[in-house]
Amino acid sequence: MIEVEALEHGFAERRVLDLPSWRVAAGERCLVVGPSGSGKSTLLHLVAGLVAPRAGVVRIDGQDLSSLSASARDRFRGRTIGLLLQSFHLLDTLSVLDNVRLARRLAGLPEDRARCRQGLEALDVAGLAHARPSTLSHGQAQRVALARAVVNRPKLILADEPTSSLDDESCERVAALVETEAERHGAALVVATHDSRLRARFERHLALRARSTGA
Amino acid sequence: MNSFVLGMRTIGRRPLPAVLTLVLLMLGIATVVVVLLFERELEDRLGRDARGVDLVVGAKGSGLQLVLSAVFHIDVPTGNVRLPELREIARHPMVAGVIPLSLGDAYRGFRIVGTTHAYPDHYGARLAGGRLWERSMEAVAGARAARETGLREGSSFVGAHGLEGDSGFHHDEQPYRVVGVLRETGTVLDRLILVNSASVWEVHSVHDDPTPADAAGGADEADPSSTEASGAEKGAAGGNFGLPPGDREVTAMLVRYRTPLAAISLPRAINSGTGLQAASPAQETARLFYLVGTGLDAFRAFAGVLVVASALSLFIALWHALHEQRYDLAVMRTLGASRGRILRFVLVQGAVLGAAGAALGTALGHASGWVLAQWLERERNLSMGSLGWAPEEGVVIAGAVLIALVAAAVPAMRAYRLDVAAVLAERR
């Protein structure tokens, strides 16, 4: 699902990431660990095609991201990758259901209301379909964000620090939830975290080292 | 969940800056529309009243005043002129027809005009009831004059000096009798009361009125109240060339040319060769428009300032909103929205505000135009006709949307260039 070769990224003189080779197969789960500043988020952004690498190749589902035009890359991301961000980023101008519908629409797919509703049901938040995101609890918002991330049946789910601010019990629950959703859709799952509690749940780990300036 | 709905909700989240933008744009567009309607109406109105009148001949004075008083009936006359002198012009081979006008009296604000049947004919007037006047002291009322004063066939009334009608001397001894009412013509005729020229002389010869009309009015050979006098009005025959007989005075004469060539020589010949003044309605209205145009330009400039202020307000509103929206925009990008879509999303907000402001402004403009028209009719006796949709308003609305798009362009470009990764990294 993910093929990374000779990937390099950085800002100006500072190299943030240097990854000679990394592969994640379809349906596989991989934990990206490392201290703050080791380039975990950068790696997710590169894999999602949100930023272009300084050097190297990123192929997702066999597709070289750099060979796509900017708008084709955006659409490809919308259809292939489900992004789960640490602070959820639900649009407060829209209702919960409309947030999910927006994911369909922005990916250029038919809105399919029933499907959006089913997605919310699967995560036990269908009752909140017309609620404003700002009225939701932390846990509810996370479920809605997850429903939005998987509504397009992505082949790859990227989660950035999904558990770092949670207590042990919530951490366990959220991790299980994300894993279940990935499994349900047959998606590969990459979780970037510095949360050591997750280590045991993943067989594959990619450890990134902290870098010093000018490395 | 398209860009429009999303844009609307985004605007709705911060309503105050949007309202400010809307109000400014609305006022600006309303001003533009009022100026547009007023200008078009004035042009229409003056154009209809002056149609077919190539030249106005009257006493020396201001040409504009002569045209305003004799063609549009919105100014006091320049003075009186003697019929024999006018006859010299009326007999000119380049003159196709003339209409004499005797002004001076009014009834309840509606001017009484001594003239010939050629005058209502000129505007294609038709009778709503009764008949045209045949003898002195018979009057025919224009549609509006009749409606507002309540004059009907068979009513009697007395004229008063001046245009205002309620001040000054009333000619109580000589009442006019209404013998007919005209249909609406959409011209100046609607607010006039027409009588024959002799009636005006008759009314003014009884009392000691020190107007020139009376001063020179003693030695007319024809009996002014005779039916022969009115009979002679009808044609150019009889050596009077469409003018009443005698050597009394009238206020002005409207002239229609036989050939456009007359415009070159005739006015100059009259102005330099006689004691009369000739003024062209076309030239004088052009001059009037030039004068009025300066005032209208000031209004346009004012409208321009408002529109620019609204564009600035829109720019600031979108710019600030963008700062708050950047997370939303970044998320939209992660969900698959292209840069172009984000650009459109911001532009749509500008366009919607622009279109809404223009629509509200157009509505307000028409409402103000209507109020202005009511006021002009009541206070200035100047009726404005239709205040309908002007074709230029389409251009105004398109222009407003375009300006809004320009104001939204810079915030939109900023949204287009949004560094998604940096924004997403911001919140941790």
Describe the protein in words.
The complex is a heterodimer of chains A (215) and B (428). With 215 residues, chain A is α/β, with parallel strands linked by helices. Chain A contains six helices and nine strands; from the N terminus they run E-E-E-H-E-E-H-E-H-H-H-E-H-E-E. Chain A has helices spanning 40-47, 70-80, 96-106, 113-122, 138-150, 168-184; strands at 2-11, 14-24, 29-33, 55-60, 63-64, 81-84, 156-160, 188-193, 204-207. In chain A, the strands form two sheets. In chain A, strands 6-7-8-3-9 form a five-stranded parallel beta sheet, sandwiched between helices. Chain A has a four-stranded antiparallel beta sheet with strand order 2-1-4-5, with helices on one face. Chain A is globular. In chain B, 56% of the residues lie in helices and 14% in strands. Chain B has 14 helices and 13 strands. In chain B, the strands form two sheets. In chain B, strands 1, 3, 4, 5, 6, 7, 8, 9, 10, 12 and 13 form an eleven-stranded mixed beta sheet that branches. The radius of gyration of chain B is 31 Å and the shape is elongated. The two termini of chain B are 29 Å apart. The A-B interface holds A 41-42, 45, 48, 50-51, 70-71, 74-75, 77-79, 83, 85-87, 89-94, 98, 101-103, 105-108, 111, 148, 160-161 and B 1-2, 6, 9-10, 12-13, 327-328, 330-341, 420-421, 424-425, 427-428.
